[in-house]
Design brief:
The protein is of the alpha+beta class. The protein has helices at residues 3-18, 45-56, 105-108, 164-171, 194-200; strands at 25-30, 33-39, 64-69, 83-87, 116-119, 131-134, 155-162, 175-176, 179-191. The protein has a single domain, classed as Cyclophilin-like (Cyclophilin), CATH 2.40.100.10. Helices cover 23% and strands 26% of the residues.
């Protein structure tokens, strides 16, 4: 992180600490029903800002839920998890924004519990548009967990407050291996984001 980004991050965290931001919600409208997620900008500002930017700029147009990870379809993994994953699906998608800073659960305190929404990634600091939702508690996805060899876990940034029945229905949908067949269409996303975006309006995440 460069010096300007560090200074801005200090100012940003000072603002959110002194003036806690109302938790925004986003409704993920799918062909199987709605999923409402509550986001935590005070704990995970980089990640929440990134997600809301995709939503506000309609960058998730054409997005899908495309992956379901169940106890029965990960035979090669000694550490098993249960999640559904969605987003733009394609690598280097034209709607993708630059990767963002990796906010660990050690920093944010947001654990991977039932209904937690979090960012998919490869190396730390590579998350862009892809996200997942936990089915049941998934502590191996937290900082220090063993699902990812680097031990830095994944960047949780909110939780489902309505629609876990839809999440579980997607989780149980037909799949070939871990890939949903067919993919579940995301018809749109909307939410009450105005207060957060006003605070963040002149901030963009550090480019990698």
């Amino acid at each position: 992180m460069n010096k300007i980004a560090i200074v801005f991050a200090v100012i940003l965290f000072s603002l959110t600490a002194c003036h806690p931001i109302k938790k925004p919600t986003v409704t993920i409208q799918t062909e199987m029903g709605d999923i409402v997620v509550e986001l935590y900008p005070n704990q995970a500002p980089y990640t929440v800002y990134n997600f809301l930017k995709y939503v506000d700029e309609n960058r998730y147009n054409g997005a899908t839920f495309y992956r379901t990870v169940t106890m029965s379809n990960q035979p090669g993994d000694s550490i098993k998890i249960e999640v559904i994953q969605g987003g733009l699906y394609e690598d280097n998608h034209p709607q993708a924004l630059p990767p963002i800073n990796h906010e660990t659960t050690k920093t944010t305190g947001i654990k991977h519990l039932d209904g937690t929404i979090s960012m998919a990634r490869n190396e730390p600091g590579t998350a862009t548009s892809e996200f997942f939702i936990c089915i049941g508690a998934q502590p191996e996805l937290d900082y220090g967990g063993k699902r990812n060899p680097d031990g830095r876990g994944f960047a949780a940034f909110g939780r489902v407050i309505e629609g876990m029945d839809v999440v579980r229905a997607i989780h149980n949908s037909p799949a070939k291996g871990q890939m949903l067949t067919p993919r579940i269409k995301i018809l749109g996303m909307k939410g009450n984001r105005e207060q957060l975006l006003k605070i963040f309006e002149n901030w963009v995440p550090e480019e990698k």
